[in-house]
Design brief:
Radius of gyration: 16 Å
Distance between the termini: 40 Å
Shape: globular
CATH superfamily: Vaccinia Virus protein VP39
Keywords: Methyltransferase, Transferase
CATH topology: Rossmann fold
Helix content: 25-40%
EC number: 2.1.-.-
Organism: Fibrella aestuarina BUZ 2
CATH class: Alpha Beta
Strand content: 25-35%
Number of helices: 7
InterPro entries: Methyltransf_25, SAM-dependent_MTases_sf
Number of strands: 9
Protein name: Type 12 methyltransferase
Largest sheet: 7 strands, mixed
Oligomer: single chain
Length: about 200
C-alpha cells in the first residue's frame, strides 16, 4: 500500500495521540479572522479534514458559525461530537463526500496536502460543488509540484503539493478568485495559505 493510501488508517490509529499533540495556540487566528470578515453572521462552514475539532472548529463556533465537519477517522469525529454536539460531524472521505447543501465557507486546513496530485486537482471540483455564491475557501498547500514523506508516531505520513501556478489556474477554472496568498507565512508557523472567494 502506498503512503498516500495509508493516511486514513494512520489518523484513526493515532487519533488520541494527535488530539494530545495538536497545537492549541491558535496560530491560525489571523487567517481565520480574515475569513470571518468576509462571511455573513452565523455563516455555514464546511471543514474538510476537521480532525478532532480543535482549535480551528472551536474558534469558528465561538464566533457564531455553524460547522459541518468531515473527517475519515471515526474516532476524530467522535471527539468532535462530544465537544460540539450542536454541530454536524460526519465520517467521510473529503474526496467523495455527498452533502445536501452549499456553504458560506469551505476549509481544508492541513488536509488537502495529504492527497495525491490527482486527488488535489479533483478536490477543486468538490470545493466548487459545495461553495455557495460568494463563498470563501481557505486552504494550505506547498509551493512546488512535489511529494514528501514525513512521519507521525513512527509511521509514514504523506504530503504532496501542486505548483503555485497550477493552483491558481485550477481555482480560476472552478470559479474562485484569490483574495490573499502568502508563501511560508512567518506569522502562521510557516504555512503557505490561500484565501479565495467564489465569483
Amino acid at each position: 500500500m502506498m503512503p498516500a493510501d495509508q493516511l486514513i488508517g494512520l489518523y484513526q490509529r493515532h487519533a488520541l495521540a494527535y488530539d494530545h499533540d495538536r497545537d492549541r495556540s491558535l496560530f491560525e487566528k489571523g487567517w481565520l479572522d480574515r475569513l470571518l470578515a468576509l462571511l455573513p453572521p452565523g455563516a455555514a462552514v464546511l471543514d474538510l479534514g476537521c480532525g478532532m475539532g480543535e482549535p480551528i472548529a472551536r474558534y469558528l463556533i465561538e464566533q457564531g458559525c455553524a460547522l459541518t465537519g468531515v473527517d475519515a477517522a471515526p474516532l476524530s469525529i467522535e471527539l468532535c461530537q462530544r465537544r460540539f454536539p450542536d454541530h454536524t460531524w460526519l465520517v467521510g472521505d473529503m474526496r467523495n463526500v455527498d452533502l445536501p447543501r452549499t456553504y458560506d465557507a469551505i476549509l481544508a486546513w492541513n488536509s488537502l496536502f495529504h492527497l495525491t496530485h490527482a486527488d488535489q486537482r479533483q478536490m477543486m471540483g468538490v470545493f466548487g460543488r459545495y461553495a455557495a455564491p460568494d463563498a470563501c475557501l481557505l486552504f494550505t498547500s506547498g509551493t512546488t509540484h512535489s511529494e514528501a514523506i514525513g512521519s507521525y508516531q513512527g509511521e509514514p505520513l504523506y504530503h504532496a503539493s501542486l505548483d503555485t501556478a497550477e493552483y491558481r489556474a485550477l481555482l480560476e477554472a472552478h470559479g474562485f478568485s484569490v483574495v490573499a496568498h502568502v508563501v511560508d507565512d512567518p506569522t502562521c508557523c510557516g504555512h503557505t495559505i490561500w484565501l479565495c472567494q467564489r465569483r
